[in-house]
């Protein structure tokens, strides 16, 4: 009797399990047919920019309304490492998106066989000079730029004014040092904790961005050259040291445990420091924290060789999967074209996404925030350096960041830190 | 039940299926990949033991391993002392003992990531302000050098785990026969002698359980590490689990990371199996 019961019970359990799996299959297939109902072309978009997820989805809906035969499905996974690994997982599971994002030359090499030539799109023709460099192979254009971004020292105009320092007059690292000294001497009156807030805990701030200003010349401002280079000359390492030391000397301490949110939110947005090394992406945060302060921020480049050139680059590219169906590829291209070249798209790019456009034909008066505006002006004047750090060997920015932390904590000399980073470059670039 | 009939296997099937798909098969795949040049999507070559050889030359990995060992030893000691002390406290006759049990256990219910951020705030803000206000130097600048990073991790881990270990000790403490303690008292033993000669030997089995639980727990820690120090400064507080994740997803060396993970698996397996072995032995003795 007992045995029989046990048998019935266990079979029920087992069948239940089997039932679960078939039920899943059912819902899966109905889903598929639901998506493919009618003759709609489904375009799966897998993108990384969390900041504009909602605006982007709205825009996709708007596009669907104009083009009823296309179904744009947007999926967003947060930036940095998470996106790269999620994308990898998507590809290895066979669930490949039609449109996805890639960063620098490393990603181009990795996904080369999945990248379609986009040179026939209107957007590729409108892309600003230089923005397509890392994604161009011969005649083929493999990606379309998202936007442009730039960084330097974001500063608080009010503090500079009260301290009697004219930010326009800063033309070299010596000028910057003098300015820092002046502000430092009036720290008490200005209510500052420090002149800088150096976020050395975030390895990318100095490891990628900071260093880029001083390595760009080694690689002719080209991320591609950096990517192909088997070693790092680092001819401007001395200037880099001056620049790191300057920030460290006048920064809120301890720098090695100071993170991004402390730097931007807690210290800069509350007016407790005069300047931070960051880019235009911090603007929305500052605006959220203190709209009044946000009206009075400016940005200046990191001085190198007595020159003020803004590092401007394209952080991410849109790409179309070459393994997707013919129809999907066409629909994907049409969507990207619409996004960057139609009037509705342009409007959204400027006012909704708040991007610095990487394309011709935009009404730049509509760029709303002062940081982006300044960066765009530098870009138009051609007064820029490239984002060569996108061509650093994978993970090398972190290596340099960690070695700089070691130097800042007094655990290594400058030469040791730089030599260790160079050695690691040679190893990683093999 | 010795006779394994059909219903035995049918009962077992769901668990076997789940275990197989999420543990066993990935494990075997993982070991296999560690011998190839797998890049996360595909592999082209079989490289044998190459990854294991480079792994032992990898200073970052060795440092992470050494740091993890140091951290585990320190946490095991601190957690067990704290856990036992808390258990003694809440099994004594103080009034608020039921409330206290809940309170001490509570940190265990909070996720590691959140705990890390909470303690980061305490170390870098609260400690710092107290240090500044009172002029105590050692309370300033926490998490900005490797020593405070290390102790920060130990404190966080102990705070989280002590309550859990307390529960195990409580179970054993409540089984200490009252007549033994009473007899000792009549013989004139002082509280320390009572603890040293009666209570302590009787809760020793709990120590074995707790030690291995905390040891393997401390070894596998990742989220607390990520949110509290993120390996910094200069990767000096990076633990093995984090080193593996970084190798895989920051440096994109999937097969290499896989080899590290296999080594890591072996270490944790040895710890766990030793625990099982010792526990079994004890059970027979009793």
TrEMBL record, chain A:
Annotated Gene3D superfamilies: Periplasmic binding protein-like II
PROSITE patterns: PROKAR_LIPOPROTEIN (PS51257), SBP_BACTERIAL_1 (PS01037)
Single biological process term from Gene Ontology: transmembrane transport
SUPFAM superfamilies: Periplasmic binding protein-like II (SSF53850)
Pfam families per record: SBP_bac_1
Keywords linked to the UniProt accession: Signal, Transport
InterPro entries reported in the protein's UniProt record: Bact_solute-bd_prot1, SBP, SBP_1_CS
Signal peptide stretch: 1-23
Family to which the UniProt record says this protein belongs: Belongs to the bacterial solute-binding protein 1 family.
Alphabetized PANTHER family for the sequence: ABC TRANSPORTER PERIPLASMIC-BINDING PROTEIN YCJN-RELATED, ARABINOSE-BINDING PROTEIN-RELATED
Descriptive protein name: Raffinose/stachyose/melibiose transport system substrate-binding protein
Native source organism of the sequence: Domibacillus enclensis
Classification lineage: Bacteria, Bacillati, Bacillota, Bacilli, Bacillales
From TrEMBL, chain B:
Compartment(s) where it occurs, according to its Swiss-Prot or TrEMBL record: Cell membrane
One Gene Ontology CC term in the entry: plasma membrane
Main location: membrane
This protein's name: ABC transporter permease
Domain ABC transmembrane type-1: 65-275
Record's keyword terms, sorted: Cell membrane, Membrane, Transmembrane, Transmembrane helix, Transport
Residue runs in coiled coils: none
Domain of life, per lineage: Bacteria
Parts of the chain that traverse the membrane: 7-32, 64-90, 102-122, 149-172, 202-222, 261-278
Key word GTP-binding present: no
Entry-linked CDD domains: TM_PBP2
Any GO BP annotation: transmembrane transport
Family matches, as Pfam families: BPD_transp_1
Its membrane topology: Multi-pass membrane protein
Iron recorded as keyword: no
């Amino acid at each position: 009797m007992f045995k029989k019961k046990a048998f019935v019970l266990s079979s029920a359990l087992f069948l239940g399990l089997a039932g679960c799996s078939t039920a899943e299959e059912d819902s899966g297939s109905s889903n598929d047919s639901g998506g493919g109902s009618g003759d709609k072309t489904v375009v799966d978009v897998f993108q990384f920019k969390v900041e504009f997820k909602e605006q982007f989805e709205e825009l996709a809906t708007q596009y669907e309304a104009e083009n009823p035969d296309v179904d744009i499905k947007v999926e967003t996974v947060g930036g940095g490492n998470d996106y790269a690994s999620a994308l990898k997982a998507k590809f290895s599971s066979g669930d490949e998106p039609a449109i996805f994002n890639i960063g620098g030359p490393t990603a181009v090499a990795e996904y080369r066989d999945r990248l379609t030539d986009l040179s026939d799109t209107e957007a590729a023709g409108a892309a600003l000079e230089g923005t397509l460099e890392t994604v161009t192979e011969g005649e083929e254009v493999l990606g379309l730029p998202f936007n442009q971004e730039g960084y330097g020292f974001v500063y608080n105009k009010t503090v500079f004014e009260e301290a009697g320092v004219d930010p326009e007059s800063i033309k070299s690292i010596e000028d910057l040092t003098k300015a820092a000294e002046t502000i430092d001497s009036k720290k008490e009156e200005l209510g500052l904790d420090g002149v800088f807030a150096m976020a050395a805990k975030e390895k990318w701030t100095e490891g990628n961005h900071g260093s880029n200003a001083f390595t760009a010349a080694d690689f002719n401002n080209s991320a591609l050259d950096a990517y192909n280079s088997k070693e790092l000359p680092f001819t401007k390492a001395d200037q880099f040291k001056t620049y790191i030391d300057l920030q460290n000397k006048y920064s809120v301490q301890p720098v090695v445990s100071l993170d991004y949110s402390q730097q931007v939110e807690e210290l800069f947005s509350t007016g407790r420091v005069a300047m931070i090394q960051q880019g235009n992406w911090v603007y929305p945060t500052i605006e959220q924290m203190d709209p009044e302060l946000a009206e009075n921020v400016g940005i200046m480049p990191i001085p190198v060789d007595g020159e003020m050139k803004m590092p401007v680059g394209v952080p991410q590219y849109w790409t179309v999967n070459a393994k997707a169906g013919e129809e999907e590829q066409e629909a994907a291209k049409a969507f990207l074209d619409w996004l960057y070249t139609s009037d509705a798209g342009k409007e959204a790019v400027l006012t909704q996404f708040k991007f610095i456009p990487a394309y011709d034909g935009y009404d730049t008066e509509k760029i709303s925030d002062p940081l982006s505006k300044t960066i765009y002006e530098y870009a138009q004047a051609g007064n820029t350096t490239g984002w060569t750090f996108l061509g650093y060997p994978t993970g090398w920015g972190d290596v340099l960041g960690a070695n700089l932390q070691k130097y800042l904590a007094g655990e290594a000399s400058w030469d040791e830190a730089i030599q260790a980073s160079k050695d690691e470059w040679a190893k990683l670039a093999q | 039940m010795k006779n394994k009939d059909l219903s035995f296997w049918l009962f077992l099937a769901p668990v076997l299926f789940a275990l197989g798909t999420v543990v066993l098969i990935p494990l075997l795949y993982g070991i296999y990949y560690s011998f190839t040049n797998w890049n996360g999507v595909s592999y082209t070559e079989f490289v044998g033991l190459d990854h294991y050889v480079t792994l032992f030359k990898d200073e970052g990995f060795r440092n992470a391993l050494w740091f993890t060992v140091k951290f585990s030893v320190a946490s095991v000691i601190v957690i067990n002392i704290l856990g036992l002390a808390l258990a003694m406290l809440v099994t004594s006759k103080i009034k608020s003992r039921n409330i206290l049990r809940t309170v001490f256990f509570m940190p265990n219910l909070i996720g590691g990531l959140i705990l890390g951020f909470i303690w980061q705030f305490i170390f870098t803000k609260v400690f710092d302000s107290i240090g500044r206000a009172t002029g105590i130097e050692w309370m300033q600048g926490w998490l900005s050098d490797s020593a405070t990073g290390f102790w920060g991790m130990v404190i966080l881990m102990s705070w989280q785990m002590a309550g859990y270990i307390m529960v195990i000790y409580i179970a054993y403490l409540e089984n200490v026969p009252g007549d033994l303690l009473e007899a000792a008292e009549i013989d004139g033993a002082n509280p320390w002698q009572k603890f040293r000669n009666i209570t302590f030997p009787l809760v020793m089995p709990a120590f074995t359980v707790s030690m291995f639980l905390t040891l393997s727990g401390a070894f596998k820690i990742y989220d607390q590490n990520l949110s509290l120090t993120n390996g910094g400064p200069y990767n000096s507080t990076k633990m093995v689990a984090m080193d593996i994740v970084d190798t895989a997803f920051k440096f994109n060396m999937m097969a290499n990371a896989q080899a590290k993970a296999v080594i890591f698996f072996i270490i944790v397996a040895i710890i766990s199996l030793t625990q099982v072995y010792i526990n079994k032995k004890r059970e027979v003795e009793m």
